[in-house]
């Protein structure tokens, strides 16, 4: 039988951190079994909702009690402070069906400890058959008998030599194979003489967001008389990593499946997802990555033993591959259609076949992961393609893997050699030779990107190119400014009416029009600027037509011109550009030609925005001449992803073919696609030059739906979430290794799609240049000298995104349009009730500081704390007597607050916050509205309901705006004689105040005013003050509103 102590919450705890708050956690002691909850930082009313399990003997329930202690966790110095405890007798325990929420008053340990607050618990028993929760357990051995000498190890307060750590993920039910049998998970940590209790548990790796249960806490069991130290760092990080690795080691492949002894119900992983989940699932976590690993070399020659350090990629875990380069063959049979088959165990790779070649050339590389090598020999076979029967083997070469050399860049490439082919049965030499190079390397090898990988054997055709890693470069974008000045000698087709002339300008898919000239004449004047986005190389032409608008749906063309973009002048600043006259071309012959006056230029002093300024990754102007030298580099190691959800069905089961895309500046990178894996390992490292630290790098994970015959093709790559990292939040030279949650907003709510592990390092080249950047404008100076309107910025950004997506889609392999749009936040400007709520509460969070200061000042004025009020009065008198100390005091206060907050700073980069985005509490209809098309595609009743809701929200905003306008109008009317009596009173007051302040020193006036505001409540009245009453009686223009 199990005893469950469900820790719900606590209220009104005692502050312990010196800042009026505490970071509490709960520790429960039951019959020498200790278990604790997670720590809730900075909260005096924490909520845990966490279950703790203990072994329970029902026969001794009347002789035991449960001790629940609340502690404050001190940081960064390890330690804890007592916040209170509660003792609960086990005589009245109930079953799970009868459990209720109970509140217990916290008590102190002694008369000298001061505690306050309450803790809410649910305590009940659970039979073994219903036990669906398991806790990791640490068992301490009993003390040795007196005759046994006590060593220093047993007396150490840190129990890492005599304990056993078992990390179990709970018996959550997921998709299982009934044929698999349960096994006991045993995790030896250290060899000790004492007997350590081992707990058998059937387990397999599963991630929290794929489980409907909450994570279970760590449970400590101690023997009688053994002192248990503070629950911090009970084992070293090396032991913890090893224990966690062993406890969560997969039983079969990469599939995240758990085998349950108690219940064999088969449930799809995707259905186990809980939308609410645990709040820790959406947080950034420290990732234990083995970066810059050593790898076997055997003294620099063999790869089966020995060590060699590879320093090429130091932000990823090294992956070892067997490379086989098949270059060519010679002296083959003249009638053969040869191709080469590379065979290693069950893996086979083959080159293309060449018809009727005696000396064929392939120059193709094959890569086999060391983790999947199943044989000790490698066969390179040359075969003859037979269109009807079985292919004939012309011969081959066999390599012993123990004799394979190693190569790590920057070593020179291994030279291929000619090998005389042998008979397949090894009976002797045969005709022909093949040139092959075989070596052991890592993913840093130059051949890695273009190699055929054994784990992608199921992909063929065009799909082979779509799974390779590539680096893309965004096209160079320019703003094209067309200033339409005037036209002369226009000849309308209908001479019985005065023309209504406008100019239409088109570049590719971008079309803009000027307004209709107000003077209906044959010599119209517009003087309007039209701005477009164009990309190098300039493939389109500027097409301009002059039209006479007959009515809304019909225009007569009066002439047009076509201007190549290569002939347009470029400018880097705001200097004037020379205007030009162009003759208009018409379809029919005329005696004389009309002409148009234009000023056209390519703007090189602007930065073409293709992404939101909030997440901008590059701020350089278009013209390379205006670029400044880089101030640093950022290196990103895309290590792996874990716990990805199935995105499609393949052969009757869920599957995910994931790849990662990273974007910073003009450089895009795409990792290779890992096929059919929920825990893909990419281990690819990339570097970008940094020109401004206040920029953001964006990484997204996608599921590949374009694998050719291997996995279907022609679909849209599915989004799986993205991560943004602002470089200014990174410390210099520090390597950040974290696991970031991949969150996606679906019509059903927010969902965690998995986690991605990244290693990031920002290296400034010059500290002085980095600091200098902080004082410079965010964008190039042309954005401030000749700024665009808000509508122009949004329209130009949309056009730039379309151009970038179209150009990258033409690459090979293409970076698809849906990927580019997701990375560039193409729909960030769309209306969303969820975003509106999130922005509103962001504003409220900012104003909460001012509101806190106001409440504090009201408490000072009301003398809630006499000591504080007296100190404020003293400080006020000092500042009045020495006014020159005001600004130094203010800045010193800001310095002290900033220095104090240094130890409370965040240790990890920011991430996608579901709570800040208001994604956890959003209503289903609001989500449906957010995913609606534009214009809407919903039915009329739904649109009417949403319109009424929007009217309700707008009505509240309207009321607030009206109140603000009323206060402003009252202040404005005080001198306007709208109310003669009120204005007269105010003028008399102003005259008297002027006389008094003229004859009275300013210090006395300020001192009297300050003391009057902070006067004691005994001298106050609960009625509004006279100035407030006077102000509220002033007139406003509300009487004139309809």
UniProtKB/TrEMBL annotation:
<dbReference type="InterPro" id="IPR035892">
    <property type="entry name" value="C2_domain_sf"/>
</dbReference>
<dbReference type="Pfam" id="PF00168">
    <property type="entry name" value="C2"/>
</dbReference>
<dbReference type="InterPro" id="IPR047259">
    <property type="entry name" value="QUIRKY-like"/>
</dbReference>
<dbReference type="Pfam" id="PF08372">
    <property type="entry name" value="PRT_C"/>
</dbReference>
<keyword id="KW-1133">Transmembrane helix</keyword>
<dbReference type="InterPro" id="IPR013583">
    <property type="entry name" value="MCTP_C"/>
</dbReference>
<keyword id="KW-0106">Calcium</keyword>
<dbReference type="InterPro" id="IPR000008">
    <property type="entry name" value="C2_dom"/>
</dbReference>
<dbReference type="InterPro" id="IPR047258">
    <property type="entry name" value="C2C_MCTP_PRT_plant"/>
</dbReference>
<dbReference type="GO" id="GO:0016020">
    <property type="term" value="C:membrane"/>
</dbReference>
<dbReference type="InterPro" id="IPR047255">
    <property type="entry name" value="C2D_MCTP_PRT_plant"/>
</dbReference>
<comment type="similarity">
    <text>Belongs to the MCTP family.</text>
</comment>
<feature type="transmembrane region" description="Helical">
    <location>
        <begin position="869"/>
        <end position="902"/>
    </location>
</feature>
<dbReference type="InterPro" id="IPR047257">
    <property type="entry name" value="C2B_MCTP_PRT_plant"/>
</dbReference>
<protein>
    <submittedName>
        <fullName>Multiple C2 and transmembrane domain-containing protein 2</fullName>
    </submittedName>
</protein>
<keyword id="KW-0472">Membrane</keyword>
<feature type="transmembrane region" description="Helical">
    <location>
        <begin position="985"/>
        <end position="1014"/>
    </location>
</feature>
<feature type="domain" description="C2">
    <location>
        <begin position="303"/>
        <end position="419"/>
    </location>
</feature>
<feature type="domain" description="C2">
    <location>
        <begin position="459"/>
        <end position="582"/>
    </location>
</feature>
<feature type="domain" description="C2">
    <location>
        <begin position="1"/>
        <end position="104"/>
    </location>
</feature>
<keyword id="KW-0812">Transmembrane</keyword>
<keyword id="KW-0677">Repeat</keyword>
<feature type="region of interest" description="Disordered">
    <location>
        <begin position="135"/>
        <end position="156"/>
    </location>
</feature>
<feature type="domain" description="C2">
    <location>
        <begin position="610"/>
        <end position="740"/>
    </location>
</feature>
């Amino acid at each position: 039988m199990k005893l469950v102590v469900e820790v719900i919450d606590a209220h009104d705890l005692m502050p312990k951190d010196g800042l009026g708050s505490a970071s509490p956690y709960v520790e429960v002691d039951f019959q020498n079994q200790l278990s604790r909850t997670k720590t809730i930082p900075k909260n005096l009313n924490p909520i845990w909702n966490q279950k703790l399990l203990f072994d329970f003997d029902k026969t001794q329930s009347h002789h035991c009690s449960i001790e629940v202690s609340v502690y404050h966790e001190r940081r960064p110095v390890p330690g804890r402070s007592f916040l209170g405890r509660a003792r609960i007798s086990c005589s009245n325990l109930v079953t799970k069906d009868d459990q209720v929420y109970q509140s217990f008053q916290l008590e102190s340990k002694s008369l000298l400890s001061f505690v306050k607050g309450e803790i809410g618990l649910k305590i009940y028993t659970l039979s073994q058959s219903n036990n669906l929760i398991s806790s990791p357990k640490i068992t301490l051995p009993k003390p040795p008998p007196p005759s046994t000498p006590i060593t220093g190890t047993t007396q150490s307060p840190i129990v890492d030599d005599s304990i056993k750590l078992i990390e179990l993920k709970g018996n959550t039910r997921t998709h299982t194979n009934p044929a698999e049998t349960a096994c006991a998970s045993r995790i030896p940590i250290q060899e000790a003489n004492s007997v350590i209790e081992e707990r058998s548990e059937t387990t397999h790796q599963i991630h929290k967001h794929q489980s409907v249960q909450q994570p279970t806490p760590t449970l400590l069991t101690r023997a009688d008389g053994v002192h248990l130290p503070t629950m911090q760092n009970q084992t070293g990080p090396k032991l913890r990593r090893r224990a966690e690795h062993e406890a969560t080691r997969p039983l079969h492949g990469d599939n995240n499946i758990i085998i349950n002894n108690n219940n064999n119900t088969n449930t799809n992983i995707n259905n186990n997802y809980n939308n609410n989940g645990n709040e820790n699932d959406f947080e950034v976590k420290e990732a234990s990555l083995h970066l810059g690993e050593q790898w076997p070399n055997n003294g620099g020659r063999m790869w089966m033993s020995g060590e060699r350090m590879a320093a090429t990629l130091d932000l990823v875990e090294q992956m070892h591959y067997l490379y086989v380069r098949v270059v060519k063959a010679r002296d083959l049979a003249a009638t053969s259609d040869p191709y080469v088959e590379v065979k290693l165990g069950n893996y086979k790779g083959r080159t293309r076949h060449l018809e009727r070649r005696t000396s064929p050339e392939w120059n193709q590389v094959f890569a086999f992961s060391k983790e999947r090598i199943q044989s000790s020999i490698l066969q390179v076979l040359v075969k003859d393609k037979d269109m009807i029967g079985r292919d004939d083997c012309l011969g081959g070469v066999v390599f012993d893997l123990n004799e394979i050399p190693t190569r790590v860049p920057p070593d020179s490439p291994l030279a291929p050699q000619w090998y005389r082919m042998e008979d397949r049965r090894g009976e002797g030499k045969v005709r022909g030779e093949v040139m092959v190079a075989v070596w052991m390397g890592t993913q840093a090898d130059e051949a890695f990107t273009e190699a055929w990988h054994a784990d992608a054997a199921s992909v063929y055709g065009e799909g082979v190119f779509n799974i390779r890693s590539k680096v893309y470069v965004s096209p160079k974008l320019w703003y094209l400014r067309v200033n339409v000045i005037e036209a002369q000698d226009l000849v309308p087709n209908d001479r019985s009416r005065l023309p209504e002339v406008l100019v239409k300008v088109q570049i590719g898919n971008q079309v803009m029009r000027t307004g209709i000239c107000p003077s209906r004449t044959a010599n119209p004047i517009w003087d309007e600027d039209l701005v477009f986005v164009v990309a190098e190389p300039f493939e389109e032409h500027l097409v301009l037509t002059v039209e006479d608008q007959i009515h809304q749906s019909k225009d007569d063309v009066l002439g047009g011109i076509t201007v190549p973009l290569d002939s347009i002048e470029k400018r880097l600043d705001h200097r004037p550009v020379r205007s030009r006259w162009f003759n208009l071309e018409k379809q029919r012959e005329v005696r004389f030609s009309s002409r148009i006056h234009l000023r056209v230029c390519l703007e090189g002093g602007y930065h073409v925005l293709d992404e939101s300024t909030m997440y901008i990754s590059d701020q350089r102007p278009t013209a390379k001449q205006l670029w400044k030298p880089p101030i640093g580099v950022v290196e990103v190691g895309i290590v792996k992803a874990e716990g990805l959800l199935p995105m499609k069905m393949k052969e009757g089961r869920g599957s995910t073919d994931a790849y990662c895309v990273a974007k910073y500046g003009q450089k895009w990178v795409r990792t290779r696609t890992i096929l059919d894996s929920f825990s893909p390992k990419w281990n690819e490292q990339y570097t970008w030059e940094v020109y401004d630290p206040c920029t953001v790098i964006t990484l997204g994970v996608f599921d590949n739906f374009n694998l050719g015959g291997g996995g279907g093709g022609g679909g849209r790559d599915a989004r799986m979430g993205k991560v943004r990292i602002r470089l200014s939040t990174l410390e210099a030279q520090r390597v950040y290794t974290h696991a970031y949650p991949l969150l996606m907003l679906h019509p059903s709510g927010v969902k965690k799609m998995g986690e991605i592990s990244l290693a990031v390092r920002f290296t400034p080249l010059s500290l002085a240049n980095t600091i200098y950047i902080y004082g410079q404008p965010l964008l190039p100076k042309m954005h401030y000298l000749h700024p665009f309107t808000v509508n122009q910025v949004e329209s130009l950004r949309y056009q730039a995104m379309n151009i970038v997506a179209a150009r990258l889609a033409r690459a090979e392999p293409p970076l698809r349009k849906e990927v580019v749009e997701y990375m560039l936040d193409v729909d960030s400007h769309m209306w969303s009730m969820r975003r509106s709520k999130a922005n509103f509460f962001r504003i409220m969070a900012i104003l909460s500081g001012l509101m806190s200061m106001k409440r504090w000042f009201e408490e000072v004025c009301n003398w809630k704390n006499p000591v504080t009020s007296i100190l404020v009065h003293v400080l006020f008198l000092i500042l009045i007597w020495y006014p020159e100390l005001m600004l130094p005091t203010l800045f010193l206060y800001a310095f002290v607050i900033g220095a104090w907050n240094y130890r409370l700073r965040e240790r990890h980069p920011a991430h996608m916050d579901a709570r800040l985005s208001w994604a956890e509490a959003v209503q289903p209809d609001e989500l449906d509205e957010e995913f609606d098309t534009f214009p809407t595609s919903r039915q009329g009743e739904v649109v009417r309901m949403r319109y009424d809701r929007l009217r309700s929200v707008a009505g509240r905003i309207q009321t607030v705006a009206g109140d603000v306008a009323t206060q402003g109008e009252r202040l404005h009317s005080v001198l306007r004689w709208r109310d003669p009596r009120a204005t007269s009173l105010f003028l008399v007051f102003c005259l008297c105040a002027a006389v008094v302040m003229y004859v009275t020193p300013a210090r006395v006036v300020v001192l009297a005013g300050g003391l009057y505001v902070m006067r004691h409540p005994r001298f106050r009245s609960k009625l509004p003050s006279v100035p407030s009453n006077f102000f509220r009686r002033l007139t406003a223009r509300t009487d004139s509103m309809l």
